[in-house]
Each structure stands twice: as structure tokens, then as C-alpha cells.
């Protein structure tokens, strides 16, 4: 969802730095949750 938003905003020539920062945060959060889930197995 965020990746599509970033692409759309770039096509419109708009600044995407906030969206990209949000995507990085979500990616890190996802990796942390996956690692936590894997350690509980």
C-alpha cells in the first residue's frame, strides 16, 4: 500500500520523503515481529 502511494506521488512530482520514512519504519517493525515470532517457535 505505501509502495503504491510512493509511486503515485513520484509520478505527480511530489515529495515522498515522509512516505519513504514511514515505509522504512513499517519494514523494520515487520522484521522485528517476524524475528519475535520465529523465536517463539
Proportion of residues in helical segments: over 70%
Query: What does the average pLDDT come to?
Result: 96
The number of distinct β-strands equals 0
The class by helix and strand makeup works out as: mainly alpha
Radius of gyration: 14 Å
Oligomer: single chain
Q: Work out the count of structural domains.
A: 1
Write down the secondary-structure element order. HH
Coarse morphology = elongated
Residue ranges: pLDDT <50 for 5 or more in a row? none
State the end-to-end CA separation: 29 Å
Sheet with most strands: none
| Residue share in β-strands | under 5%
Number of helices: 2
How would you summarize the topology of this molecule?
Blueprint lengths: L1 H10 L5 H23 L2
Model description:
This protein is mostly helical and 41 residues long. It has one domain (2-39). The protein has 2 helices and no strands. It has helices at residues 2-11, 17-39. Helix 1 (2-11) packs antiparallel against helix 2 (17-39). It is elongated and about 45 Å long.
Summarize the structure.
With 41 residues, this protein is mainly alpha-helical. It has one domain (2-39). The chain is built from 2 helices and no strands.
Features:
elongated; mainly alpha; 2 helices; 0% strand
